[in-house]
Amino acid sequence: MSPTAHLNGILLPILLIFFNKDLLSTTAHFQHVGCYQILNDNGNLGVLMELTDNLKSQLTPDVCLRLCVEFNDNRNKVLNYFGLFNGEQCYCRDTVGIFRLASFDCMASCPGNWQISCGGSKAMDIYFIEWENPPVLQTSMSHYNCAVHCLHLDVKLAGVTNRTSCYCGSGLVSSAVRASAGVCGRPCTGNQSEICGDAEYMLVMKVV
């Protein structure tokens, strides 16, 4: 029998499925905010994303967005900005910046698309992350809490990962791969008798 959660007395059957972490893409888009001066001594760069040689050659705002969305999965808060610096670095950030510059100060082309700028030698192209269904991070995460949250958003799938993160979506990405239950064995922070995925895997619940 499938586990169930209920809201206001209505039973919500939950189908537990185990997939790789990227199946429920928290859909996100980005909006360019501007070119901002970088002051290294103020520590305002943000969190530097490690890039493989392949990613370095493909770096664009889309690539940086994907890295920061993945990085947010393991955060206790969501970083809502990302920045591209000197045509070769991607940073996840929680602020825009202090000193806005003219667009010509961000003239370093992106390796993955030479028609797009990826900052400059002393400047960063800053983007705002527009979440469609942003992940919910709770210190008391449980299957019920995540399912109810996604029910209110009127979507059919809820996913928990890394013990604390809840994602909502309307479907699975085409690259989703089913995995064994053992890889999702970390207990939920809000209910130690339930499992809430892992750093690399997500437990998905179908909310009906």
Automatic annotation (TrEMBL):
Residues 1-27 form the signal peptide. Residues 29-130 form the WSC domain. Keywords: Glycoprotein, Membrane, Signal, Transmembrane, Transmembrane helix. PROSITE patterns: WSC. SMART domains: WSC (SM00321). It is found in: Membrane. It is a single-pass membrane protein. GO terms for cellular component: plasma membrane. This is WSC domain-containing protein. It comes from Macrostomum lignano.
